Amino acid sequence: MKPTNQEGPSQGLTRREFLGTAVGTTVVSGLLPRVWAAETRNGIPYRTLGNTGENVSCIGLGGYHLGQQSDEQESIRIIRTGLDEGINFLDNCWDYNDGKSEVRMGKALRDGYRKKAFLMTKIDARTKKGAAQQIDESLRRLQTEVIDLLQFHEVIRETDPDLIFAPNGGMEAVVEAKQKGKVRYIGFTGHKSPDIHLKMLNTAFAHNFTLNSVQMPLNLMDAHYNSFEKKVLPVLVKHNIGVLGMKPMGDGLILKSKTAEPVECLQYALTLPTSVVITGCDSIPILKQALTVARSFRPLNQEQIAALLAKTSKVAQKGEWELYKTSHNFDGTYQNPQWLD
Fold it and tell me: Model pTM?
């Protein structure tokens, strides 16, 4: 199954024409979150995470950038400030910064902060033995007895779904961890191709397995090129699987394209039927920006969406600002295949 190259609208499309194309498969067709604001905590809207019934903050704190912060104490302060201000969804991964991201988050979750958090992390291993080891390592680093949501990381190869669900594959270890109370919910993430996401979903359906969440890039560029929004998002909404949007700013690439501002990027992703939009915050000012957007959020109307898509259409045609789709720059498991064992 080859990734398809969905061409975006031509440069001449008007805003009105956009309403019937890029927007039509999601917002306009009524695929809005079942609960826009299940509750509000400290001004932050919470949404329901699909079939889990859990309420989570509409903004999630990305784990990768926390490990990039040069000062460990500052990264801990960012996490605790986010939790104090009303964010509860924390993102992380076994391989982020060679484990540094999980170690720092574990330290931040001391002193009663763990009870404020809905904690998610990811593993890379496709084998039962490797997955079990990575789960235990993550639990130790995060200083917790249970991970709220565990996801298979970087489902980016066509072979990944079959490997994960194979006998003695990674899913067996995750299910056993759930039975032992180490894991509460199960999902997967990837950034390469919507077709691979669909294969993972279909593999799960074929095994009568209910996934709780799926994480994928959802942003103003994705809407034009090999789009997760167009191909995967409607499937998740139909099956009530939690939608985790990531890379709302394309890991900064969209900002470098000079076609959209950070606030616009966040507003667009929040207007989609996402349970959580995960954004990287490596400083308190960047965190405050995300908090402000969340607290003041109102869904963009059709005209506003069309205007943003029109601004990004021309530069998004070939995926050059979505290198996570078109290169191996973002593929940690490509650079480190031993993580998959």
Answer: 0.90
Q: Are 274 and 233 in contact (CB under 8 A)?
A: no
Closest to 5 measured CA to CA, from 143, 135, 195 = 195
Q: For residue 177, what are its two tokens?
A: 């961890």
Radius of gyration (C-alpha) of the chain in whole angstroms: 19
Q: Which of 35, 31, 49, 43 is nearest to 89 (CA)?
A: 49
Tens digit of pLDDT per residue, the chain (341 long)? Answer: 333 333 333 333 344 433 344 443 444 344 454 445 678 999 999 999 999 999 999 999 999 999 988 999 999 999 999 999 999 999 999 999 999 999 999 999 999 999 999 999 999 999 999 999 999 999 999 999 999 999 999 999 999 999 999 999 999 999 999 999 999 999 999 999 999 999 999 999 999 999 999 999 999 999 999 999 999 999 999 999 999 999 999 989 999 999 999 999 999 999 999 999 999 999 999 999 999 999 999 999 999 999 999 999 999 999 999 999 999 999 999 999 999 99
Burial 188-198 (b: 16+ CB within 10 A, else e): bbbbbbbbbbb
CA distance 78 to 180: 32
Tokens of residue 46, six digits: 């919470």
Written as one letter, the residue type at 201 is L
User: What pLDDT digit, counting tens, does each position of 71-82 carry?
Assistant: 999 999 999 999
Both tokens of 6, joined, read 């969905």
Q: Beta 55-57 vs 44-48: how paired, if at all?
A: antiparallel
Is 254 within 8 Å of 221 (Cβ atoms)? yes
Cα 21 to Cα 13, 52, 53, 189, 273: the distances in Å are 10, 31, 32, 26, 17
**E strands of 36-171, at which residues?**
39-41, 44-48, 55-57, 59-61, 89-90, 118-123, 147-152
Calpha distance 185→194 (Å, rounded): 22
Could you tell me the two tokens for 233? 């998002």
